Automatic annotation (TrEMBL):
The organism of origin for this protein: Corynebacterium lujinxingii
Pathway: Amino-acid biosynthesis; L-cysteine biosynthesis; L-cysteine from L-serine: step 1/2
Family: Belongs to the transferase hexapeptide repeat family.
Protein name: Serine acetyltransferase
PANTHER family: SERINE ACETYLTRANSFERASE (PTHR42811)
Top EC class, one word: transferase
Keyword Repeat: yes
NCBIfam families the record matches: cysE, EPS_EpsC
EC number(s) reported in the record: 2.3.1.30
Source organism superkingdom: Bacteria
Amino acid sequence: MLSLAKSVISTIREDLHNAREHDPAARGDVENALVYSGLHAVWVHRICHSMWQQGWKGPARILAQLNRFFTGVEIHPGATIGRKFFIDHGMGIVIGETAEIGENVMLYHGVTLGGQVLTQTKRHPTLQDNVVIGAGAKVLGPVTIGEGSAIGANAVVTKDVPANSIAVGIPAKSRPRNPDECVKLVDPDAYVDPGSYII
Ligand SMILES: CC(C)(COP(=O)(O)OP(=O)(O)OC[C@H]1O[C@@H](n2cnc3c(N)ncnc32)[C@H](O)[C@@H]1OP(=O)(O)O)[C@@H](O)C(=O)NCCC(=O)NCCS
């Protein structure tokens, strides 16, 4: 029980740290824990997914529906989501049952990870580690978005995207990503010259 509590706390800490890394507008952890519906949606999904895996499928669906009602983010309890997953501006997101999401993936609002067929097979996308999906993008079918790739805002992706690529447009076209396009957000303090402070 104690180890479960420790792991929950460390996951929440990691998610809060991750929110600060991905959103320059993020401020203190307490404020972020209260105001980021993307974080709330992911936390509740983790409970739903564990219920789903234990066979409590009905209650998991009901909790997921409540999650959707309060956050505007619809994640099927069967979806597999890795660590450090962040949804910015969480609203209007749909993540289907057989979607698989790696580590350190980020979605903006309005993203759909949807299916194209009505059969109960693997019908939703797989996002490998370090993928970013821009606002309003639709990724449809059991396609794979390769590690380190970015999907542009409002793109519609129906084919695999290789690793370290950028895909934009409808239908989305991929091109290799330049290394300097992978720069992470830098702490704004890094830009401040300490010698310039006025005391
Ligand atoms: C796709 C994306 C990652 C491209 O980044 P980039 O490679 O640095 O792209 P650039 O800004 O240098 O643009 C390169 C070209 O692609 C075009 N382009 C950029 N994003 C595009 C998009 N989403 N759809 C269509 N074309 C796009 C640019 O207009 C430019 O065209 P040009 O060469 O004719 O001038 C980025 O534009 C994007 O869409 N990110 C999502 C961000 C987001 O959703 N933010 C929401 C915040 S609330």
